Amino acid sequence: MATKPEIDFPEGPPPTELVIEDLVVGDGPEAVPGANVEVHYLGVEFDTGEEFDSSWNRGESIEFPLRGLIQGWQDGIPGMKVGGRRKLTIPPEQAYGPAGGGHRLSGKTLIFVIDLLGTR
Questions:
Q1: Domains and CATH numbers, the chain
Q2: Is the pLDDT of residue 1 over 70?
C-alpha cells in the first residue's frame, strides 16, 4: 500500500464510541498493547472532513510507542497486523478531550486511516 488513503466524508452523527474498521487485513506480525509501531497515517476531522495531519505529506513513515499516543490509538491499533490498513473513528474522550481543553483538536471527533508497517 504505497498510496495515500482517501477518506470519504462521513455521514450521520459522530459516534460516541471508538469505531474500528479494517480496510485491509495484514498478514504480518500483530501489534500488541504498548508496542512500538511504525505507521503511515492520515487524520481528518469528522465534522468538516478536513485533513489535519498526514505522515504521507511528509513523505516518511513514523515510529512511536503506543503508550505515548491518544487513547483511541492505544485501543484501536492492537490486534492489527503488519501490512494492514485500519480506519479509526475516535470520539473526543479518546482523542484530545472535550472542547476548551487547550488543544486545537479538543472537542472534535477524529478519523484516522493507519497503515501498519512494522511493530516491535
A1: 19-119 (3.10.50.40)
A2: no
46 part of the active site = no
By C-alpha distance, which of 2, 5, 6 is closest to 60? Answer: 2
Beta bridge partners of 64: 37
3-state secondary structure of 67: helix
Helix residue ranges per DSSP H, the chain: 55-58, 71-76
Mark whether 9 is an active-site residue: no
Q: By CB neighbour count within 10 A (0-12 exposed, 13-18 middle, 19+ buried), where does 12 fall?
A: exposed
Question: Is 41 part of the annotated catalytic residue set?
Answer: yes
Please state whether the predicted TM-score (pTM) of the whole model is above 0.85.
yes
User: pLDDT at position 64, please?
Assistant: 94
Active-site hit among 46, 77, 90, 112? 112
Active site residue 64: no
Known active-site residue 20: no
Look at residue 2 and tell me whether its pLDDT is greater than 80. Answer: no
